[in-house]
Amino acid sequence: MATQSTLVWGTAEVVEAEQVAEGVRRVVLAPERPTPARPGTHVDLRLAPPATDEPDGPRTLTRSYSVVRSDDGGRRLTLTVQLSPTSRGGSRRMHALRVGDRLPVTAPLQNFPLGVGAARYVLLAGGIGLTAVLAMAEALRSRGADYRLVVVGRSRSVLPYLEELRQRHGDRLALHVDDEGGALAVERLVGEIAAADVARRTELYMCGPIGLMEAVRRCWGEAGLPPTHLRFETFGNSGSWAAQEFVLRLPGHGREVVVPPDATALEALEEAGIPVMADCRRGECGLCLARVLDVQGRVDHRDVFLDDTQKAASERLCLCVSRVAVPPGTDTLPADPDPASDPAADTAPERRGVLTLELP
Amino acid sequence: MSSAPRQVTAKVFDFPRDAWYVAAWDHEVSPREPLGRTVADVPLALWRTTDGTAVALADACWHRLAPLSMGKVLGDELQCPYHGLRYSSSGRCTLMPAQKTVNPSAAVPSYPVVERHRYVWVWPGDPDLADSDLVPDMHQMDDPGWAGDGLTIAAGCNYQLVLDNLMDLTHEEFVHSGSIGQAELSESEFEISRDGERRVSVTRWMRDIDPPPFWRKNLRDRFPDFDGRVDRWQIIHYEAPSTICIDVGVAKAGTGAPEGDRSQGVNGYVMNTITPESARSSHYFWAFMRNYRLDSQLITTQLRSGVQGVFAEDEEMLVAQQRAIDANPDHAFYSLNVDGGGMWVRRILDEMLRAEGREPDAGTPRDHLRPVASR
After folding, report:
1. Inter-chain contact B103–A285, Cβ cutoff 8 Å?
2. For residue B113, what is the nearest residue in chain A, using CA coordinates?
3. Does residue B102 sit at the A interface (CB-CB below 8 Å)?
4. How many domains does chain B fold into?
5. For chain A, which domains are there?
6. Could you tell me if residue B15 is inside a domain?
7. ipTM, two decimals
8. Cα-Cα-Cα-Cα dihedral sign, residues B255, B257, B260, B261
9. Last residue in a domain, options B133, B152, B187
10. SS3 of A17, please?
11. CB contact under 8 A, A280 and B103
C-alpha cells in the first residue's frame, strides 16, 4: 500500500482516443517504458500548447489524470478526461489529442492506494471523479471483496462506462443521478455504513466535487467513524483561497521574508537561509510547526496535522503548506496601527497578508 | 520471448511471490497476541480481529519500523509495542497517542489472507492478483471423511529441495529403511502426468510385495488378522507453487486396488505444503490424514508421531544437502530419470517467476567442470 511520488518522465504515444460520454474522452497511452499501474494511481502529462491557436496562451501545462485501467503490464494506460467549462487549458489540450501524438508522461504515481484487509469497501465517485475509483472497483471485484460502488452525477449522459459498470458490478453499483431525482443522500449513505456491524472496519474511498467530499467528511466525523478510514483524492492543494503572496515577519531573527504565490513559507525560509525542521512537506507530520504571534489576513491552514479546534485557534501552523490570504472584499485584518508608518497610509491598505512567527 | 524451456537446475531456487503460502496453522493465529512469521522474505505480524478474521500486516511499524509482532492486539486493532501507534486490519494507522490527528499517509501493508484447510494462507505479492480460487486443494485436512493431524518443521534449506524430496520417493529405501523404505520403490515403474498449468502427478504401484513396518501396522489397524503380501501405491499430486498431497496406501495383494477397488486396504494422504521463509529456510507444514477408523485418537497420535520420526530423517538429509550445496559453489546439479516429477515442478515454478517478470537463476554452468572431467 505504498505511495509512489517519485517523478520518472518518459514518452508515451496516444494509441486510442474517442468520446465515451458527453464532453468526456477516453485516451489510451502506450508508454515507451511500461510500468503496471495499480489502482489509485495517476500520471502527470506535459501538454504543449496547440500549434495553431492560443498563440499567446500559456506555455506547457502539467496535469494529473487518474489511470482508469492498466493493461498488459502497463503497456496500455487508459485515461478518461472531462472537458471542463472552466478549463485552464489542460482538458482542452487533452481533448485535442489524436492517435499517433506523442507526449511526455510520468510513470504511474500513487497517492491514493487501495488497502487490503478492510471488512468492507465503499467507493464513492462524483461525476468524472469516477476515474479515480474505477480500477479500485475492478480490483475489489477480482479479490472477491465486500464492496459497493456509489456513482453520483448530474445526468446519465455525462457519466462514462455506465453500461460496462453495470455488467461488471451488478447490484454492487448504486447510481444516483440528479436529473432523474436520484440525488445522493450523504447522511443516509454514511448512516448505513455506521450502522453495520463492520462499521469500524469499513473504508470509504471518494473522489468528486469538493462540496460532496466535505459533506461526507462532516457526516463521517459526526458518525464517529475512524477518520483514517475515509480516503480521498483531491489532486492538488485544498486551500480555502487561491495562493497569494504574503509576508513572513520573524522578530526573533529580525528578518522579513516574502512568500511568492508559487512557493511555500517553508521554501521561502529555506531560500532565505533560515534553518527550519521539516520532513513530509505536505502538511502531515507536524515537524515544521511554528508559533503564530500575529496575523494580518486569514490563515489558510491546508494541513492535516492540526485538528479543527487547533486550526480555529491558529496558535501554530505548518510552514510547509499553510498560507495567509487576504480574501477578496476584505482589508488586511487587523489594520497595522504603526504610528511611524508612511503618511500615505490613508491610500489603499496593503493587499498582502502578513504573518508574524516565532520559529523553533 | 523465446519459447524454448530453459535450464531449471538452479540449486537455490527463487520463489514466486504472486502465490498463496501457508503462514501458520489456524490455531497459531490468535486474537490475544500477534505471531511473527516470515513468508517469502516478507516479515509478517499475524493476528485475529474480534470476529475471528485472520489478518497479516507487515511486521514493521510505519513510524520507526519496530516489529508489530511484539505488540498487543486490542480488539480490532494492533498496537505497536514502541510508541503505541495503532493499526486496523487494513493496515491503516488509527491512533498516534502523542497528537490529536493521525497522519493520513500512515499505514503498513496488509496482505491478502484466506483461511482454508486448517491453515492461514497469505499472498505476499501483488494483492490485486490474489484469487482465492488459487489456494491449493488440501480438502482432506478438514473433510469429515478424513481424520489426522500434523506438525511444522523449521527446515534449514531452500524450499525447492523439499519439493524435490517429495516428488521422488525412491529415497525412502535409503533414508527411511526402518519404516517405509523398501527396494521395490526403485524397481517399480512410475508415470508422470502434467495436468494443466499448475499440477503434476507421479504415480507408482508396487504389486504383490511384503509391506514395510509402517504399512503392516496400518493395515492391521483395519484388518487385525491380516499377515500377507500387499499392493502398495504412491500417487503424488503437486499443485503450484509448493503443495504436495500424496495418496498412499496398501491393500491385500490381488484384491483389485490398482483397478480402483481399495476396499481391502488402508488409505492415507500425506499433506505437505512448503512455505519459503528465505532462500535457505522453509516452513514445512505437514499432516497425515486417513479415511479409516476416523474416531481413533490413538491412531491419529500414533500416525503423527510415526510420520514425525520419518520426516526428521528427511530434515537431517535436507539440511546436510543444503550445507553441501553451499560448500560446493562451483558444482552443478545433474538429474536422474527419477527426477522427472521434480523437474516438471521446477519448470512450473520457472514459468511463474517469469510471469512476475523475474529472471530465475539459471544454475551453475556445467561447462565449468567439463574440462577437468574430460582430461
Report:
1. yes
2. A117
3. yes
4. 2
5. 9-110 (2.40.30.10), 120-232 (3.40.50.80), 246-358 (3.10.20.30)
6. no
7. 0.72
8. positive
9. B133
10. strand
11. yes
